Amino acid sequence: MTRTTVERSILDVDADNRLEPAPGERYGPPREELGTTTSSRARTRERLIFFGQLTDTHVVDEESPLRVEFLDKFRGPFTSAYRPQEGLSPQVLEEMAEQMRNTTSPVPPSRPIELVMTTGDNTDNTQCNETRWMIDILDGDRQVNPDSGLMAGQQPGGSNCKVAPEPAVAVPPACDERATPDDRYDGVRGAHEYYEPDSSDGEDGPGYSPRQPENVRSSEVRDFPGLYQHMNEPFKPTGLRDVPWYAVFGNHDGLIQGNQPRNMLLEALAVGCEKPSNLPTATLEEIEGYIASGDEEAALVVLQNALTGGDAETMVVPPDPRRRPLRKHEWIAEHFATTGFPVGHGFENRPASLVDGQGYYHFDKGGRVRMIALDTVAETGLEEGNIEETQFQWLHQRLEEADDQGRYALLFAHHSLRTMGQPAVSPFPTTGDQGGDPSPLVHYGLRSRAESQDRECLLRDNATPPYPDETLKCLLLRHPSAIAFVNGHEHANRITPFSRPPTDSANPLLGGFWEVNTASHIDWPQQSRVLDVFDNHDGSLSIFATILDHAAPPEPGGPDAPREGQGVSGEAVKRMASISRELSFNDIDASHNDADGNGGARGGPEDRNQELVVRDPFAD
Fold it and tell me: What is the mean pLDDT of residues 86-93?
């Protein structure tokens, strides 16, 4: 059964801050910036592959001592420090896996999904328990308990790392005496600065008050009593079952909060019972000052020093060794403890990944398609990405092989080209111990963060080895096999053509590659994408990019919210995921262009359901 936005979309149709079913979005005229096709292609085309993309699922342990929700109000690099819906991420992933598993291609002839690529930020804080929740949900074979924190005398049960060793830092024995059931952490609450979605007292933070005059959005934001308890109840996922899935590294999978290299001090904080709840006034003012001046890197350094130096105000929470942040090779190793397939979820295709922690690999699908996964995490820290020299040279070789063999190359990474500009120099006092390749020789997507213009492409042929300053865009443009670059990180639906420049004005369009960037699961609009690749047998290829909503219904259920803003929701996984979508729509940080949720992170029509035409590089 086809389940895509071609048949039905989800929007706030009547501007009441509730989501409803909306009309489907048919494919528009083919986008022909990179090639032209014929009107008879439907009769001649041949499908090469039909696959799904999950990205930025951000499975998060919202109770973790490593979270810094209290900084969200300072904006800048901390706008994702707190989301009302973040504790519902496991349920959202389950509902998206169900939808993906049951999706068939909306482009005739119908075909079930063949495989799924997860393009990074699969977890939120590179923790052991988050990693196991993510893998077990996608596998769909083990019960998942999305709760964390152990009471005195409890022993870790589920969500333990299956491969990685126990924490190098022991949980302090005093935690058994200090933590009580009353110490369970349930969000940033009680200070009237943030939204409390389970029981508003009418004094929630800016933008979330049930009193309309105080609300940023156009209507009341309703509450869901008992939500913090229900979101942490165990469930057994169905996952992707027999659909193969492949993992890709994101900055949140390899760095603390997606920014900071892990180290022993941060590990001690993660597994212990002291959760930072605020910072001294002078430290907060210093962070605010750096953000106001645009120096976000300095703000993050001040934060790390405060967290690891003992300057933060803390509250007692139940400790949990399962919260240990993993090194990169350990995160990879967990993918080999799976009931899904393939075992290793792609990393087995490059065994050295288990040693060096570099998560890049490739595999061929059939006789005509090559899938290439990149590791764009900047090991020395900060959220933007890069590709170190060794991997860049490896990529050139895999593309050169595809050129010679007549294979169409589809590339996958977490970062988009424009967010792949992180210099190798670290602003942090220590580069940490998370592993990977901290080489100072790195390549960018378009340019470094310090540059204002894209770097010029100096080479046209596909045989010359990469030069030191070559960007990923330039490398892909000189390899004719590269037809698509699929990624995430930006939490938005965007499609961008990159054309191969002609050698002279008399030459026809020489094709290029499409960059396909897809929205996240944690923020509005909580969508994924499926992609069909066809050989039209007319000198062109078509890539049908189609948006997918997760399987939870648009309306969470229960009665409509009365005027005071209260609502009622059931406890099932689907309703939890549905609540998450509604909360993400009403999040004060949600990206909207229109009142009904069009545009913004959702993208315009050109970024959603589209047929993307590219000249067949091997047609001759």
Answer: 95
Q: What are the backbone angles phi and psi of residue 401, rounded to the nearest 5°?
A: -60, -45
Say what the pTM is. 0.94
577 SS3 class: helix
pLDDT tens digits along 16-57: 788 999 999 999 999 999 999 999 999 999 999 999 999 999
Report the Cα 618 to chain-centroid distance in Å: 33
Homologous superfamily (CATH) of 8-153+196-273+317-615 is Metallo-dependent phosphatases (3.60.21.10)
Residue of 600, 577, 584 whose CA lies nearest to 84: 584
Question: Could you report the per-residue pLDDT of 206-244, keeping only the tens digit for each?
Answer: 555 545 555 544 445 677 878 888 898 999 999 999 999
Return d(Cα 479, Cα 113) in angstroms, integer.
28
State which amino acid sits at residue 375. D
Are 595 and 32 contacting, i.e. CB atoms less than 8 angstroms apart?
no
CA distance 91 to 241: 16
First vs last Cα of the chain: how many Å apart?
A: 38
Provide φ and ψ at 10, rounded to 5°: -130, 120
Burial of 370 (C-beta count, 10 Å sphere; 0-12/13-18/19+): buried
CA 610 from centre of chain: 22
Distance CA 254, CA 188 (A): 25
pLDDT digits (tens, 9 = 90+) for 349-363: 999 999 999 999 999
Give residue 172's pLDDT: 81
| Domain positions in the chain | 8-153+196-273+317-615
In the DSSP assignment, the letter for residue 549 is E
